[in-house]
Amino acid sequence: MRDWLDFQGRIGRRTFWLAYVLPIFGAEILASLVDIGLGLYTMAPFTILVSLLSIWPGLAAQVKRWHDHDRSGWWVLIQLVPLVGPIYALVMIGFLRGTPGPNRFGPDPLGDAAAMPATPPMRA
User: Is residue 124 assigned to a domain?
Assistant: First the structure.
């Protein structure tokens, strides 16, 4: 659980999607269904609560993905640029591979083998 709240280090794309985005998205949907089931259409207290609770882990995940690109966590603020910012952030942290090998934020989350360029086998 501490890793969910920690802003240090790096995470890969797979961890970003499977350990952060999907659970938060699922919790949001579940909370919305509970609110609808209880007839709470206007206030939606469960949805609001889940949204507030997901801010910190969501920011932590984004910061770690920016770290994977060897960029400061302050790059999360790029999303405040209308239209272009959120799209750029989604592409960078959601779909593009980070810096191969270790960087100033820690070791490659994909391991040392990921830092090695793929070379075709030599034939004699």
Answer: no
Q: Is 34 helix (H, G, I), strand (E, B) or coil?
A: helix
Residue 95 backbone dihedrals phi, psi, to 5 degrees: -130, -25
Q: Name the residue range of residue 70's domain.
A: 2-115
- Give the chain's domain count: 1
**What's the CA gap between 77 and 51, in Å, rounded?**
19
Going residue by residue through the chain (124 aa), what tens digit of pLDDT does each one get?
568 889 999 999 999 999 899 999 999 899 989 988 988 877 789 888 998 999 999 999 999 999 999 999 999 999 999 999 999 999 999 999 999 999 999 999 998 755 445 445 555 5
Helix (H/G/I), strand (E/B), else coil: 78 = helix
Q: Is residue 110 part of a domain?
A: yes
Closest CA to 93 of 51, 48, 61: 61
* In a domain? residue 121: no
Using DSSP's 3-state secondary structure scheme, residue 43 falls into coil
